[in-house]
Design brief:
With about 375 residues, the chain is of the alpha/beta class. The protein has 13 helices and twelve strands. InterPro entries: Aminotrans_V_dom, Aminotrans_V_PyrdxlP_BS, Cysteine_dSase, PyrdxlP-dep_Trfase, PyrdxlP-dep_Trfase_major, PyrdxlP-dep_Trfase_small.
Length: about 375
């Protein structure tokens, strides 16, 4: 038996998404910007996909901008907002546990004269709203807080942040790459101005995503060239990829998200109860309640996470020791460092298990048995 338990890094392509990509690749090869029949057909398919994604968030269709994924969406939002609003102030607020797709643009903006406040987190990986209030200033122009953390699964207090910023000039951006398709998100109700998502995190294709931009936000084009995406993102749209993304999104109805969540919680219970029954010493990293159901960050005191990953890989079981975007990096998780301190052994004794499409209870039991056998040795 084998098992893929690294869905927080990327997800397998859903068969229906693949079928939609193949359909579009075979039948709709026209350029959506062309005015002839082939182009008009492609443009129609493009707008149908845009409608699906807009409906999933309860926003207007033209507020959806197609991108190459979460990194482009984050960079477009953060750098675009900062540069266009610098006359109103140069202060930005984010958190210490953001994905590198947010942290690296922040570092770039610091090099351009902006001041960035990185909110700390407690040992459960949660920020304090009072810290956010204290950090907020008259010259704060942008606040970027991820919807859910990719390493712990923690859900951040997005609704409360949106309420705090309601009367403030700051634009509110959230990296929802890990959360989209797992929980219902309503930007209008939550006070979110900009939201980034990536198809490969919800069983769509890699290399495609979208950025929600509220009509209330003025955002200059990040990629310049043609006039695609209402002059907001140059470049011929990846129609097969966008169609596959929309099909994957359409399968994640509110009922489907509830059903999936219950299934993943059952898997987590199977795994942790098996560890308990075997007398394994373990702890959960992150918020035990306010979290995404499919992500488990587990610490095994005294056991190297690199060793665990290697031994499980030999059994064809895929887990992670952190964000896939830091793969090959021997540095400990910056998220766990923010939670426990840079010298804490937790950073080198923790693994991430993330469930998703295709996983079965039998696979989870195999993972549990394999983990126990390795740990008991």
């Amino acid at each position: 038996m084998e098992g893929y338990f690294d869905h927080a890094a990327t997800t397998p392509l859903h068969p229906e998404a693949l079928a939609e990509m193949n359909r579009l690749a075979e039948t709709t090869f026209g350029n959506p910007s062309s005015i002839h029949g082939y182009g008009r057909k492609a443009a129609m398919e493009l707008e149908l996909a845009r409608d699906v994604l807009a409906t999933s968030l309860g926003v207007k269709s033209h507020e959806i901008i197609f991108t190459s994924g979460g990194t482009e969406g984050d960079n477009t939002a953060l750098i675009g907002v900062a540069m266009s609003r610098k006359d109103l102030g140069r202060h930005i607020i984010t958190t210490a546990i953001e994905h590198p797709a947010v942290l690296e643009p922040m570092h770039y903006l610091e090099s351009q004269g902006f001041e960035v406040t990185y909110l700390p987190v407690n040992e459960q990986g949660q920020i304090s709203l009072s810290d956010l209030e204290a950090a907020s200033r008259k010259d704060t122009i942008l606040v970027s807080v991820m919807y859910a953390n990719n390493e712990t699964g923690n859900l951040l207090p997005i609704a409360e942040i949106g309420a705090l910023l309601k009367e403030h000039q700051a634009v509110f951006h959230t990296d929802a790459v890990q959360a989209y398709g797992k929980v219902t998100i309503s930007p209008k109700e939550l006070g979110i101005d900009l939201l980034s998502a990536s198809a490969h995190k919800f069983n769509g294709p890699k290399g495609v995503g979208f950025l929600y931009k509220s009509d209330q936000v003025s955002l200059p084009a990040y990629l310049r060239g043609g006039e695609q995406e209402e002059k907001r993102r140059a470049g011929t749209e990846n129609l097969p990829g966008i169609g596959g993304m929309a099909k994957a999104a359409s399968l994640l109805t509110a009922d489907a998200m509830v059903e999936n969540g219950n299934r993943y919680r059952h898997f987590a219970k199977l795994l942790t109860e098996a560890l308990d029954a075997a007398g394994v010493n373990w702890q959960l990293n992150g918020d035990p309640v306010n979290k995404l159901p499919h992500v488990l960050n587990l610490r095994f005191p005294g056991v190297s996470n690199d060793l665990l990953l290697m031994k499980l890989d030999l059994k064809q079981l895929a887990i992670s020791t952190g964000s896939a975007c830091t793969a090959g990096n021997v540095e400990p998780s910056h998220v766990l460092e923010a939670m426990y301190g840079s010298k804490s052994p937790v950073t080198k004794e923790s693994i991430r298990v993330s469930f998703g499409f295709g996983n079965t209870a039998e696979q989870v039991q195999f993972l549990a048995d394999s983990l126990i056998a390795i740990l008991q040795k």
